[in-house]
């Protein structure tokens, strides 16, 4: 139970009621006897600039997880960014320093990879397809490049956005093969849906059903969608014999990264 | 445990670790099956203006209790004040309307009277001495005037502040006898320490020990200090046979007033 002396971390986004981080963090804090709590803040866009200024003076708040739709806009307002957050122009976590300075990082990609490694996937020299070049897709793509994949393909119905991400990644990782073209899925060791398609039981697929038939059964197939846990996309992959990785697995895997950056948790929890 | 869907109220002040409201509110929320939590916010003065602007956009926050030292400064920044908060230029609670407007009230006095009534004290036609003309003293004095005391005396080492409060109250309640002069304590039905004197086990008294000997044994003697619960002032009063009222009793009594104003509790809890 929260008392006057309880230190805080927050998660900010809008809407916010659906987020799982408060339950995950608070369970961990309680089980580990920490006098800390996470609160979920549903902030209107009109309050964001003031919220960031208030954070600088909020002495018993250690940090803030950032979720949709504020990962990009808040990256522009902090006092310092990690190299990857600066490259992605996107943060999913903020740490408040004792002097009030706010530092940002983006551990979406690291969390994704931590979950993938738990499934036995080692990214070095692999071929990966990331579907979706928005915030989370960009973070996953960046982490794959950092980890030395041989080939990265970015697919998005929004072609200019996909090409902009590919360009950014080619500049940061000039030795890698980064493109937007692919004939079928059979060459890929990893296929990730980083779009919201399939969310909320819509039944939709992020790639054409016919294309999914070309998935290599040795591939790891992952989804960032958290609800339903097993999306139609993952269902098909599982039927084809692929290993699958769910959205909640990625969310759970990055809890330690988020907590560690805020200074309230070890990296591996 | 706080989840993404938990609605919030806050208490803001600095320092904040010592406040009892979060434990009191959160116990009540839990016992009454409310998906609500109170968090304590230790805000630097430099962050106050931004905090108020952020509150306007904070969609899952119902309101905020205000404690020392921000009751006066925040009263200047809200979108509307109750008549008593406007007269006192001091708020101890803020409600966030659905449209983001922030309304303030000050229920310190009402909470004090609720506790006093529980001790059988009926203010109408009584004589009261309030020691201390700061925020909480002013709120108690105002509530006593509203309740129709016959005579109110305000004592403060800071004479100009005491006179300023007396002037404000005479303007608002022209029919009452409001002054700063008294010979001894024997005429008073109520004597209140509304200063911090006695806090933290200092052993100090808000009135001279010799003067305290003149307390009327039929009087109610009250303290706003919460730690220790029984201050040296209350100890002497008890020994003289007076009924006593502690700081925690006042704090507990006004919980319903605070919660009701924020729309999260019935008035009488």
Describe the protein's topology:
The structure is a homodimer of 269-residue chains.
Chain A: E1 7-13, H1 21-31, E2 36-42, H2 48-57, E3 61-66, H3 71-75, E4 80-81, H4 83-88, E5 93-96, E6 102-105, H5 108-118, E7 127-131, H6 135-146, E8 151-155, H7 159-172, E9 177-179, E10 190-193, H8 209-212, E11 220-223, H9 232-239, E12 243-245, H10 247-253, H11 255-262
Parallel strand pairs in A: 1-2, 1-3, 4-6, 7-8, 7-10, 8-9, 10-11, 11-12
Antiparallel strand pairs in A: 3-5, 5-6
Helix pairs in contact in A: 5-6, 5-10
* Helix share bin of chain A: 25-40%
Uncertain stretches of chain A:
none
Most extensive interface, chain pair and sizes: A-B, 45 and 46 residues
How many distinct folded domains of chain A?
2
In words, what does this structure look like?
The structure is a homodimer of 269-residue chains. Chain A contains 11 helices and 12 strands. With 269 residues, chain A is of the alpha/beta class. The first copy, chain A, has 2 domains: 7-107 and 254-262, Rossmann fold; 109-250, 3-Layer(aba) Sandwich (Rossmann fold). In chain A, helix 5 crosses helix 10. The longest helix of chain A has 14 residues, at 159-172. Chain A is globular. The mean pLDDT of chain A is 96. Chains A and B meet through helix 1, strand 2 and helix 2 of A and helix 1, strand 2 and helix 2 of B.
């Amino acid at each position: 139970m929260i008392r006057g002396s309880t230190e805080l971390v927050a998660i900010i986004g809008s809407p916010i009621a659906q987020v799982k981080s408060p339950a995950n963090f608070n369970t961990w804090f309680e089980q580990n006897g920490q006098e800390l709590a996470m609160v979920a803040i549903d902030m209107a866009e009109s309050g964001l600039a003031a919220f960031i200024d208030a954070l600088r003076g909020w002495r018993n708040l250690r940090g803030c997880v950032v979720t949709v739709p504020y990962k990009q806009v808040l990256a522009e307002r902090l006092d310092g960014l990690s190299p990857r957050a600066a490259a992605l122009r996107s943060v999913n976590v903020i740490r408040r320093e004792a002097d009030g300075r706010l530092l940002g990082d983006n551990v979406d990609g690291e969390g994704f990879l931590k979950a993938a490694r738990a499934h036995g996937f080692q990214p070095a020299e692999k071929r990966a397809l990331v579907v979706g070049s928005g915030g989370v897709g960009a973070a996953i793509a960046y982490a794959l490049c950092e980890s030395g994949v041989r080939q990265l393909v970015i697919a998005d119905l929004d072609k200019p956005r996909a090409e902009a991400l590919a360009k950014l990644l080619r500049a940061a990782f000039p030795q890698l093969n980064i493109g937007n073209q692919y004939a079928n899925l059979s060459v890929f060791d990893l296929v990730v849906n980083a779009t919201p398609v399939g969310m909320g039981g819509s039944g939709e697929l992020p790639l054409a059903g016919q294309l999914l038939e070309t998935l290599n059964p040795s591939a790891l197939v992952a989804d960032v969608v958290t609800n339903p846990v097993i999306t139609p996309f993952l269902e098909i992959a599982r039927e084809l014999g692929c290993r699958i990785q769910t959205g909640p697995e990625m969310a759970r895997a990055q809890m330690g990264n988020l907590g560690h950056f805020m200074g309230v948790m070890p990296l591996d929890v």
